Amino acid sequence: MKIAVCIKRVPDSETRVKIASDGKSLDEAGVKFILNPYDEFAVEEGLRLKEKAGTGEVVVIALGPAAAQETIRTALAMGADRGVLLQTQGLHPDGLETAKALAAELKGAGFDVILLGKMAIDDYNHQVGPMVAELLDLPCVTTVTHLEIVGGKGTAEREIEGGVEVVAFPLPAVLTTDKGLNEPRYPALKGIMAAKKKPLEVKPTAPGPGALEILSLTLPPERQAGKIVGEGPAAVAELVRLLREEAKVL
Amino acid sequence: MILPAAYQPPLPLDRLLLPVGAPGAGDRMELDVLIVGAGPAGLACAIELARLAQRERSDLNIGVLEKAGALGEHSLSGAVVNPRAFHELFPDLKDPDFPFRGPVERERVALLTSRRAVTLPTPPTMHNAGNYVASVCEIVRWLGERAAALGVNVFTGFPAASLLVREGRVAGVRTAATGLDRGGQPLSNYMAPNDLIAKVTALAEGTRGSLSQAWLERQAVTCENPQIFALGVKEIWETRRSLDTIVHTLGWPVPTDAFGGSFMYPLEPNLVALGLVVGLDYRDAALDVHALLQRMKLHPLFRQYLEGGEMVEWGAKTIPEGGYYAVPARRSGDGVVILGDAAGFVDVPSLKGIHYAMQSGMFAARAIHAGLTAGDTSGARLAEYDRLVNASFIMKDLYRTRNMRLAFKDGFYAGGVKAALMTLTGGRFPGGKIAVEPDASVERRLTPGVRPVSVFTPDGKLTFSKVDGVFKSGNATRDTIPIHLVVGKEVPPAVAEFYAGMCPAGVYELAQGTLRVNAPNCVDCKATDVLGPRWTPREGGSGPKYKRM
Known about the structure:
Chain A is α/β, with parallel strands linked by helices.
């Protein structure tokens, strides 16, 4: 089975984010970058599909700056076979342009399954997976939490409001992965050693300007400190008064 | 009185030392040289080794194991760095090329009372002209990149849990398992330990290294004095007011029967590192270094900078303070060498260790390379490393100040007078060696004595609880990992309270009359291993995630 996994290099969710002086991008100084956690589920699922099939190839593809090679190496250390970096200057904000670049790389390469995380934790757009499917004219199942592939056909479960939806689809297909699909493996020592020698092709890429422009980024407002009204029954009256008059929730 | 040693379990040698081929391992890998710990010592060793091999066009397989999830995340220091080891390791580079924040331009040493700060003449050992303020996290990341570029395999997130030994010879290490639940049962992402087999294993574990201790104990390597430790708690602040001076203080809030002091350094004009370091031979059982640091920040000297600013990072680490007489008689054996803090190469009077650590790593690399070239990595051959260290500035510096820290075991004032005389006599006063006992053998007073008791309530602006601190350390250890601390069998409530005060990360609590252990809080400072429950390596990537410490 031939599997492609599209991954993205994103700032660590533990990072204390700072906005750069231009007011519309991140200040990358001192920021640690990681493999997008939703893409980790995609890599893990790709590896499991290949292991189950017994043969095949898992190719990881990233669009991003030169430093994204490190992110690809992480996926290679987990067990992917080879990597492709569509190298750009910095990060591209427009989901459609990203999808076009990925689709151009994927087109005609004979992949049975194309996996992506359902979204990247830095921009929350949820766009690239479905757009890639559309550009390649392939069926698409988003937010997959369970996956079975048998003989050229797939069944996927998706968590929807209040229940689980089960969908069947033919291969090839584009799937986006959600939390709960699997527990991604840690790279093993042998995997890390092996990853250094696995092929990683770097292709300079210049996505189009796109239609999306980021006007500004702002941090969420700082949370107000809590207030301790008092202790014991005596405080109840004051609490009720504040809830009614200040918070206006009663 | 509490005698900590009476409640401390022995070093778990059965876990820390394993025969080669012991069951339970997954993968097995062979390397030429294995370095345990990606700190300044281990990485300098790796870089020097890779260069020596490159020069002779030999292919050397060098691996560095690091327990932190990413480079530098478990490294913490002041730090004012003497650049001499950088010059030796990178002869083609100049000071501005190194990962330093800035040269020391102005310095001040002050004696504090609860309200005032009296400037003292800077002791000769504490002159820092030509030195640089730096973050050891940044130094480690920078060294790590250079090592990787030279072909060194740096494995982050892999703690060395046991030393593999074959007939007295160190043959490598076994890493810690990953993905165990609280009861020690494998989870779905369980990863078995790996055995790494190497011709030489260099232990650069840092302060209070578990494998180093186990090996020294098994080999019965002597030292003239036991190693003693201090605990430092450190914070990084974004400040409104800028600081342009490196400040060291003595006196308040450290009680006079303890040894300690503070530091405050500018990383950037509005980014300040500050911390408090207290010797773990303190007498008051209730002493709490974290709480003392919080109280210290209320002093006008610190408050004027911190007020209105934001605490952005918090961390803690022990420091080996025994100096010359606590360095083990040998730091080499069959297939093994011990570097840096793990060997005790720290000079307390000048508050320096990083350049000694790096230099020891380079010496080890030269001895290892010579041994590998000769096809002999026996203890006799690797003893070349000890000879290089002994003949170098490392031991010369430590010898000059050999009794200075030890003089303070009888209190601050007597110690101050003795230390001054030592400085005047170039270390010759009082002659001979001041003997000390291990920190765990120092009895603790249960009455508060000279220190006034006051209940400390953090305000969340200038002062913080231990839980706040652990959060700011970046510690996101999963709650369900097995407890990695080996606690003594019966811990009375008074001892549990002593542990609660001693641990800066709130790992220990007295709850319903018994000791409760909140193991995921642990930031690997190792104070617990010095005075109480033993620390053992746990799942890779656990613990703090320091960024600019």
